[in-house]
Structure formats: structure tokens, C-alpha cells
């Protein structure tokens, strides 16, 4: 009985608001007829509703229409600068606390993601770009050297030429007449 | 109550953001004091058609050189400070000395010297992207040629 | 367009006339809803002058945006939505203590006597009114909004949910919570 009371008690407000389905409303009504606790709860809520309505209407009374409309009309007639409208529109549409706090959360998340790159070597947001290595200077001490760059992979290759005398028969590399090794 | 809750939220978020910024900047600053050099010593030849699976990441680069087989002989990694030198043993009595000189515009400038015994074969200064690499090849070895994949990164 | 003729027009017909540029049609809409809007805003802000200011701003904004109103919802839910959003926005921006409540019941009673109405006629005791006001002060703006829209304006849960942009279940639970809090404060006076 107590459990049913707790369940029904949560529905009494919606019952008074006529927001329950017919089935639920009949169930609540039927329970209250046999339960003085819930019946009293209903009376208290009705009393509360009446008091609230009276209080709010009292507080809001005395609002004259003519001066109210005059002020609204004045605002309509005045032209606000476009940037004030824009700012007002922004504030009006982005008042939600969730949206407000989205910005600092996004900043914090971005910082965390960028920081990961420092703690997890090799992990990066973007794939490695352009692998081009530039040869700033080279001295092969009299030996033959070629610097190649392959266009597809952008790989820089520094190749020391083997001398003709020491050339491997199976090698397909061009040979040089100079001794290199 | 709402004001207090919002103040607490704002303080937490701001502190989190600041802490992360500081950590990020500190890590970035510390990381750039250390250079990691990786040297892969590869034997390229036409004796077989085998491609070492350990070299899969370099496959597209090695195909430029057009040997039929590639085998990773060894891989060495050393971490060192800027302006210090690291020496790597290269098969055939050779050695490779690499000195990271400076870091500028996301590029590392390296001084590279290849020696055969005491005899210098090559001195070069190369700039490459952080975590990038270049290939140095040609010295003959065991019926093929050696190709060194030289890469560097600053953390 | 005479006022007499305007009375017979529906809200949507008046809106369409506003969209066509007839300010008199908008005046009629203001006449219909200014008090209702004021009640809801006053319930949230707890301050008469501020509520008046926000209510006037509500209608000003509504006029500016009326060309964009397509009739997808009832005019009054659209209007209340502007009012509630502005009220909550105002509450956040105001520098004074949002819980400050300077209006005493005596002020209210005095105003009622001047206007010829005495809404406390049905109240057994002024103490109920004082306690109610104190209890309402402790509710959040969201809870105040639902209790005013339901208890005073008699809006359905569906309408309230559309105005506040939440589910009907949320409206129901907020109402239940608000009522419980008010009941606790009123105690034996109910």
C-alpha cells in the first residue's frame, strides 16, 4: 500500500493538470477514493494551485496597456545599429549553459589532443607531409656522388658510385671509372 | 546557488585548460632538446627477389632504387642532445657519424659523415622534416650494396 | 482596421497582417498577450520593473522576427518562448543578486486596493502568501517558469515543453519537484 501510495503521489499533480491518460487517471482516482493520505495530498495541491494563481495574478495586476504599448511602439520605431542587433541575436540564441560551456570544453579538448602528440611519439593529427630532405652541402672527397629525388615519394637519395673495377656483376647501378672504395 | 555552481565550473574548466597548456608547452620545450636518430642498414641486391617484411614502411622509397631484393641487416636508434654526435657501426668496417645541428621551421639540420675505417667517404649537411628520412646508399657489401635509411625526430 | 474588427480575427490572421506591415494588427496581439507574458516573466524574475522591461523587449523582438514566423506552432507558444529565453538571459546578466526580492506583500496588497481588486480574498492568511513568495525565491528560473506557466496560465505540458525546449517528462518532473518544494515551505498552512 505504501509503495502504491508513493507511486500514485507522483501522479497526483499530473492528474490535477489533466495530463494523464484515461487509464492512469482512473487508477489515481480509484486509489484516492480509498486512501486518505493521497486524498489529502490532492487537496493540498489544489490549495497550493489556488494560492499560486492568486499570488501571481495579484503581483502582475495593475499593468496598464497604453503605457506598455507606447514603450513597445517606441522601440519598434527606433533603429538600432546592425551590430547591436547581431549581438543581441547572438545572446538570445546562445543563452544555453550547455552551449556557453561548449567553447571552453572544446578548447580544453583541443589542447589535450595536441598534447598527446608530445607524450605519444609518432602519434600525430596529420599524416607526415612532404618528406623532402634537402642536401645543403656535400663533399664526397673526390668520389662520385649523385643526389636523386624521386617525385612520387619525395625521397631524397644520396648515392655513392661504386668504382668500375669493384663493380658487382649483378649490380644494375651505373658505374664510374673512379675508385671509390 | 547557480552563480556559485557556475563559478566552480568556470574555475575547473579554466584550470584544466591552463594546466593542459602549461604541460603542452613544457613538453614541447623539453622534447626539442632531444633528438632521436634512427639508422636502418639495408642490403640491396639482385641475387634474390625477396623483400624483407620489416622494410614494408620503406618499400615505396626503396623501389626508387630498383634492386630486386632488400633485407634489413640492423636498425640502430640513439637519442642525443643537439650539437652532440652519434656514431653508428656500418657493415664493412664503416661508420656513420651524425650530428644534429639545429632545428628550424620544423626541419632538422644534420651533419652526416660516412667513413670507411679512418677514411672519409662522404660529408654532407642535410635538412629534413621532423620524423622524415633520406637514403644514403652505394657502398658495396656481400654481393649487393648497402642503403642507409637515416631518419631523425625531435620529440 | 478597427479594434472591434480585430477582436474577431485569430492570432494567425493578425500575424499575417503584421507580416504585411499592419502595425495595428501587432498592437492587437500585444493587447491580447501583454498581461500573460508579463505574469510569466514576473514569475521568473521576481521583480516588477525588470519584468516590465523584459516583457516590452519580448514584444519588440517578436515584431522584429514576425516575418519569420511560419505558423508551425501557436503564436502564443512562440511568444512565450521568446519571453522565457529573454528572462533567463536577463537573469544571468543582471548584476544585482537575482534572488533579491524587494516587493513585499504589503506593496502588492496596496496595489490591489488601488486597482480595486483584492486577490488575497481567497487566501486564509497572509502568512501563506509570504511563505509562498519565500519558497518561490528558492526555485531555479526553470522551475519558476514551469510552475507559473502551469499554475497561472494553465498551459499544457506539451505547450510548456515546446516553450522550454525540453521533453514533457522533464516538464512533469520539474513541476513535481517545484510543487514538493513549495509544499514543504508552506507546511501546515496548506
Secondary-structure topology with pairs:
The complex is a heterotrimer of chains A (181), B (155) and C (190).
Chain A: H1 2-16, H2 22-34, H3 36-60, H4 65-77, H5 82-93, H6 97-119, E1 134-139, E2 145-149, E3 156-160
Antiparallel strand pairs in A: 2-3
Helix pairs in contact in A: 1-2, 1-3, 2-3
Chain B: H1 2-31, E1 34-45, H2 59-62, E2 69-81, E3 86-90, E4 94-104, E5 107-116, E6 119-129, E7 133-141, E8 144-154
Antiparallel strand pairs in B: 1-2, 1-8, 3-4, 4-5, 5-6, 7-8
Chain C: H1 3-7, H2 11-19, H3 23-45, H4 48-65, H5 75-93, H6 105-115, H7 126-137, H8 141-151, H9 157-164, H10 168-186
Concise structural overview:
The complex is a heterotrimer of chains A (181), B (155) and C (190). Chain A has 181 residues and is mainly alpha-helical.
Spell out the key features of this protein.
heterotrimer, A: 181 residues, mainly alpha, two-stranded antiparallel sheet, 6 helices, elongated, disordered C terminus, B: 155 residues, alpha+beta, 2 helices, 53% strand
Overview of this structure, please?
The complex is a heterotrimer of chains A (181), B (155) and C (190). Chain A is mainly alpha-helical and 181 residues long. Chain A has helices at residues 2-16, 22-34, 36-60, 65-77, 82-93, 97-119, and strands at residues 134-139, 145-149, 156-160. In chain A, strands 2-3 form a two-stranded antiparallel sheet. In chain A, helix 1 packs parallel to helix 3 (36-60) and helix 2 packs across helix 3 (36-60). Chain B is of the alpha+beta class and 155 residues long. In chain B, the strands form two sheets. In chain B, strands 2-1-8-7 form a four-stranded antiparallel beta sheet, with no helix packed on it. In chain B, strand 4 (94-104) and strand 5 form a beta hairpin. In chain C, 71% of the residues lie in helices and 0% in strands. In chain C, helix 9 (157-164) packs across helix 10 (168-186). Classes of the chains: A mainly alpha (181), B alpha+beta (155), C mainly alpha (190).
